[in-house]
């Protein structure tokens, strides 16, 4: 059995606004319902990871993004999540709006991040990648 057949391929997006605040969504469904995380989701059959990031961000936040470099990969249970650093595309909405699998979406600074209940391992992972809110 190959690694790809043992894990569900997923993507996540790390997006900062011009002030250095990090985009987070509150998950509306399991796993992690009611907890905050970076937006993302499953890669659909025949879809590459960059296309999945663009689709998931549009569905969950209404933002159009341009995926950049792969920041890192995490495994959570059956999920293999490839997280990409993304920029909002020119002409994209500036304020996220929750949709699809998210019941809230917002850019958060360090103080707001510290007050949110986040999914297990998120803070440690983002800190290790240098991707916590910058302000």
From TrEMBL:
Which GO MF term does the entry hold, naming one? hydrolase activity
**What Pfam families does this protein's entry cite?**
NUDIX
Q: Where is the signal peptide?
A: none
Name the source's superkingdom: Bacteria
**What sequence ranges are listed for the domain Nudix hydrolase?**
6-130
Q: Which cofactor does it need?
A: Mg(2+)
Keywords from UniProt, A to Z, are: Hydrolase
Family stated for the protein in its record: Belongs to the Nudix hydrolase family.
What this protein is called in its record is ADP-ribose pyrophosphatase YjhB, NUDIX family
Q: Which species is this UniProt entry from? A: Pseudonocardia ammonioxydans
């Amino acid at each position: 059995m190959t690694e790809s057949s043992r894990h569900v391929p997923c993507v996540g997006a790390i997006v900062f606004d011009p002030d250095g605040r990090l985009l987070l969504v509150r998950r509306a469904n399991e796993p992690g319902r009611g907890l905050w995380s970076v937006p993302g989701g499953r890669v659909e059959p025949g879809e590459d990871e960059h296309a999945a990031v663009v689709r998931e961000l549009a569905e969950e936040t209404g933002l159009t993004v341009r995926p950049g470099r792969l920041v890192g990969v995490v495994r959570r249970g059956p999920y293999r999540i490839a997280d990409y650093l993304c920029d909002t595309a020119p002409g994209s909405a500036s304020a996220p709006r929750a949709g699809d699998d998210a019941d809230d979406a917002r850019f958060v600074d360090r103080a707001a991040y510290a007050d949110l209940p986040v999914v297990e391992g998120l803070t440690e992972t983002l800190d290790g990648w240098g991707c916590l809110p910058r302000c």
